[in-house]
């Protein structure tokens, strides 16, 4: 299942690395694509776990239509 999130408070490379790390820990092996310019995170996997991982990393994901 593909989940797409907008993460408005992901503003720099450090933020991107933090989000990517949180997703890798929560969903090992899941395909993750991050577009920092548009603040979009696309992940193949459990959307609920992905959203929770991003929130636990300190960010505010907003689910968008896939």
Write structural notes for this entry.
The structure is a single chain. The chain has helices at 13-26, 47-56, and strands at 2-6, 32-35, 40-44, 62-64. A hairpin with a 4-residue loop joins strand 2 and strand 3. The protein has a single domain (2-64), classed as Alpha-Beta Plaits (2-Layer Sandwich), CATH 3.30.70. The longest helix has 14 residues, at 13-26. The mean pLDDT is 96. Strands 2-3-1-4 form a 4-stranded antiparallel sheet, covered by helices on one side. It is α+β, with helices and mostly antiparallel strands and 66 residues long.
The CATH topology comes to: Alpha-Beta Plaits
Instruction: Give the topology string: H per helix, E per strand.
Output: EHEEHE
The amount of helix comes to 25-40%
Strand content: 25-35%
What is the mean predicted local confidence, pLDDT?
96
What is the rounded distance between the termini?
A: 9 Å
Low-confidence stretches: none
* Radius of gyration using CA atoms only: 10 Å
Named at the architecture level, the CATH assignment is: 2-Layer Sandwich
Please state the oligomeric state of the protein chains shown: single chain
Number of strands: 4
Strand order of the largest sheet: 2-3-1-4
The domain count comes to 1
Helical run tally: 2
């Amino acid at each position: 299942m593909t989940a797409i999130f907008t993460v408005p408070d992901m503003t720099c490379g450090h933020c991107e690395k933090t989000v990517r790390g949180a997703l890798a820990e929560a969903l090992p092996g899941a395909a993750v694509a991050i577009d920092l310019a548009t603040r979009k995170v696309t992940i193949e996997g459990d959307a609920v776990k992905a959203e929770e991982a991003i929130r636990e990393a300190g960010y505010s994901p907003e689910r968008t239509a896939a």
